[in-house]
Amino acid sequence: MSDLYGIMSLAGQALLTQQQAISVTSHNIANVNTPGYSRQRLIMATDTPLDSTIGPMGTGVTATGIERIYDRFLGVQINNESQGLGQWEAHNKAVEMLEIFFNEADGSGLSPAMSEFWNGWQALTNNPSGQAERQVLITRSQILATTFNRLDSNLTQSRQDLDFSIQGTVQEINRLSEQIADLNEKIISMEAGAQSANDFRDQRDLMLQELSKSIDINTSEDTTGAVSVFVASGSPLVAGSMTWQLSTETNASGLQDVVWVDGSGSTTNITSDISGGNLRGWLEVRDVVIADYQNRLDTLAQTLINEVNTLHLTGFALDGSAGEVFFNGTAAADIDVNANIVGNPDLVAAASDPTRVPGDNTKAIEITDLQYQLTMSANTATFNDYFSSLIRDVGNEVIKSDSYYDHQAEMVAYLDNYRESISGVSLDEEMINLIKFQNAYTAAAKLISTVDELMESVLNMI
């Protein structure tokens, strides 16, 4: 009877094991479209054999655990490339907006405004005493000044908008950090009880990938299964169930810097240490790209103001009075036409000799000729050449950004596809496994039925 009971126990264990295999397979099928899911496999092994008169006697099959099909090294590669993808994704969106500001195709840009400004002076040389010509010149000068103001305002607003993006990204980083710490705690608790935390590990890996798109991170896993996350050259963000926060502080320029907050509430500025993710992209465009464009725009406006004013101050108005400054201001943000000249077009100093007024156009010619003189870039470029180089650099920045973003997107897509080939669920493969385990389950049930019939036959013999 003990042999029959042993076979019954063996069949029951086989039945239970195949049932567990079917359950794992069903779990895989159910999560075929779940982002970040790694397929699982029941690990089967022969059960501990028993001694018998003829040698060790097998006792069937047992399940020793549920294996998560996952390549850790590949996961690290995906996180590393995601940092670059996040950086160039943010960079790309920001510079494409800048390209719109410098769009000259619709006729409302700075180049057409400067051309009309020079044309206004040219028209005045033909009729230096003409009221219509003087009024047209003032109007075109105001349009030029307003265009400078608008460009500078757009660039300033873009920097402020990027500040909001930086603050939003910092909040997202803090949210993900808390979720990773919570998953750490769940993984430690489950694995301490000799249970698999495969699903929690999948969720944590997905969170780490999302985090790496926001900021460059380094990770390490300890013996308990908890992951520690470090940012910006070693500042801890997550350790076990503990988290540290990032925040923002206003710097001397009125913009937001990223700071790491320690346990006591003290902050450390980590802005310059951030080397990847959305934060790096936002910061680079805000502090390098836009700052450069604004500086060059200011240089153009300042030089134009100085050159025109220098000549205009040495000229004479229609009433023979000495010329005033034509432009007020010092940069693109505050350039404006002198209010006295706007109110009285006769004050436009087109003459260089007060005794020849109103027919003298010499000063107007000198100012008109400024458009052809090498006044920019250490006397190597004209006003138009200088602004054209700025437009060209804006376009090149967009092309560069598109190229880097496309490259990173392709790299991440390749690695994701490679991960899917290793960890992803194949419905065809799972259906084959399901049939295999179902047949094994049916065979184990048949074995139980056979043993039951044998036991009944023995009992009937008594």
Question: Summarize this, please?
Answer:
The chain has ten helices and eleven strands. The protein has helices at 2-30, 72-101, 110-126, 131-192, 198-214, 277-312, 339-343, 362-369, 383-423, 427-461; strands spanning 40-46, 61-68, 217-221, 227-231, 235-239, 242-243, 245-250, 256-261, 267-269, 327-328, 336-337.
Explain the overall architecture.
With 462 residues, this protein is an alpha+beta fold. It folds into three domains: 2-39 and 426-461; 75-97 and 166-287, no CATH class; 101-154 and 290-395, no CATH class. The chain is 61% helix and 11% strand. It has ten helices and eleven strands. The protein has helices spanning 2-30, 72-101, 110-126, 131-192, 198-214, 277-312, 339-343, 362-369, 383-423, 427-461; strands at 40-46, 61-68, 217-221, 227-231, 235-239, 242-243, 245-250, 256-261, 267-269, 327-328, 336-337. The strands form four sheets. It has a four-stranded antiparallel β-sheet with strand order 3-4-5-6. A three-stranded antiparallel β-sheet has the order 7-8-9, covered by helices on one side. Strands 1-2 form a two-stranded antiparallel ribbon. Strand 8 (256-261) and strand 9 form a beta hairpin. Helix 2 (72-101) packs parallel to helix 6 (277-312) and helix 3 packs antiparallel against helix 8 (362-369). The longest helix is centred in the middle third of the chain and has 62 residues, at 131-192. It is rod-shaped, with a radius of gyration of 38 Å.
